[in-house]
Amino acid sequence: MARGTSGSWLPWLGLALAIFISDQVTKVLLLGSYRLGDSTHVTSFFNVVRAHNTGAAFSFLAGASGWQRWFFTAIGIAAALFIVWMLRSHAGQRLFSFALACILGGAIGNVVDRLVHGYVVDFVQLHWRGWYFPAFNVADAAITVGAAGLILDELLRVRRSR
């Protein structure tokens, strides 16, 4: 696949919007059905749980005095603006743009949570034999997929340049 930069960036914004809407709809459903700490066992490795994260990934800085809400909101907004600029410049690079759109949709989803609630709503809990992965949400999953896509895109770029 060519790494051209031509192409419309609007479909990538559409993907980001779909991720954002999916994230917010799942959170609204959870907030309407669960109280903080409620949990439903779904499978031997998956629970639905209502958790609030005032920090960043893996609750980084969750115990801070509140300034982190605005700090992570500002980072999210700055990242979203940078990603939109990158999408406009590189819309023809499909894997790269797919990855950026995933990160954009997820970042905006979590920024909205911080602005509306003061925390990010998490609800997916994976576990195995007594080990529990920190709860996450659709936005976090999209950001992770996007980060993996950026790594793969770079590996493929390096491989093509040899």
Question: In short, what is this structure?
Answer:
The protein is an alpha+beta fold.
Task: Report on this structure.
The structure is a single chain. The chain has a four-stranded antiparallel beta sheet with strand order 1-2-3-4. The chain has one domain. It has helices at 10-33, 67-90, 94-117, 138-161, and strands at 39-41, 46-53, 120-128, 131-132. α1 runs parallel beside α3 and α3 packs antiparallel against α4 (138-161). The protein is an alpha+beta fold. The protein has four helices and four strands. The model has no long low-confidence stretch (mean pLDDT 88).
Q: Could you give the topology of this structure?
A:
Elements: H1 10-33, E1 39-41, E2 46-53, H2 67-90, H3 94-117, E3 120-128, E4 131-132, H4 138-161
Antiparallel strand pairs: 1-2, 2-3, 3-4
Helix pairs in contact: 1-3, 2-3, 3-4
